[in-house]
Design brief:
5-stranded antiparallel β-sheet, 4-stranded antiparallel β-sheet, 19 strands, 34% strand
């Protein structure tokens, strides 16, 4: 053992804590030298807003003759089982002086910082004789599935979706001067060339996920309702209610899966785990 290492138990404890304290001080000194922007960059993606600026902010920008956002279309992608291609049109913020941002933000309650968001999609065919847009007026396209491939877990078979599915907000429903995921976002369908665009779910339903029947004649949707007044034993977990809906492409009908819900309701009614009082 080194002569410099303390021999008494008390001094060894003091020695150890001094070493830990020195390491903490060095770590704090290093972090203090890291620019604030570098530290916050790890969390920015969840904090920035997305969407198309409209309403009061757009009007204010027009009065000031300021261009707030930049449009660019993405590299075209070939659509499977079709001679068409598609290219999403994406909107992004421009970097503006803080004074300009303050002037624009004075027109509404929310800041205008946003990152790229799809606001439309352009379709064109192989020989470029047909070029068309999906939306007559720009909106906010949070997700799209256009002629993608689906793989079967059995035998490695695969097939192509015979349609295109989108989740789109078309208007500023909550009045915050932007069209984004905070507005109503129903699902839409179109043919693979972008035609026959139609809404298939109600505005009022906030649907969480979807899946397809094997023959693609029906699309199923999940609605999850969380009751934050009823916590469960795990932290940040709450009672949830699930509703399943489906859209039939052959009948153009959207409805709740009542048979499934009724069966669950019967199970729920027979489920009795309440504590019985002592007799």
């Amino acid at each position: 053992m080194s002569d410099s290492y303390p021999r008494s138990k008390f001094m060894r404890v003091v020695w150890t804590f001094n070493g830990i304290g020195l390491a903490v001080l060095i770590l704090v000194a290093i972090i203090s030298e890291i620019p604030y922007k570098v530290l916050t960059s790890f969390f920015e993606e969840d904090q920035v807003e997305r969407g198309l600026i409209v309403g009061k902010k757009a009007n204010k920008a027009g009065e000031l003759n300021i261009d707030l956002q930049h449009l660019i279309y993405e590299r075209p992608s070939k659509i499977d089982s079709s001679d068409f291609y598609y290219s999403p049109v994406v909107v992004m913020d421009k970097k503006l002086p803080q004074k300009v941002l303050n002037d624009i933000n004075s027109a509404a309650d929310m800041s205008i910082y946003m990152i790229g968001a799809a606001v439309n999609i352009i379709f064109f065919n192989e020989d470029r004789t047909v070029v068309r847009r999906l939306l007559p007026s720009n909106g906010y396209i949070s997700e799209h599935l256009i002629g993608g491939e689906r793989y079967s877990p059995y035998g490695g078979k695969r097939s192509n979706f015979p349609f295109a599915l989108y989740r789109v907000a078309l208007s500023d429903d909550n009045g915050d001067s932007r069209i984004n995921g905070e507005d109503n976002m129903p699902y839409y369908l179109s043919d693979l060339d972008g035609t026959n665009f139609r809404q298939i779910t109600p505005d009022t339903l906030n649907l969480d996920s979807y899946w397809f029947s094997d023959n693609y004649n029906e699309i199923y949707f999940d609605e999850i309702i969380v009751d934050k007044n009823s916590p469960l034993v795990l932290e940040n977990y709450y009672e949830k209610t699930r509703q399943v809906y489906y859209y039939n492409l052959l009948t153009n009908e959207f409805r709740r899966f009542d048979e499934l819900q009724n069966e669950f309701d019967d199970i729920q009614n027979s489920f009795d785990n309440k504590i019985q009082p002592d007799l």
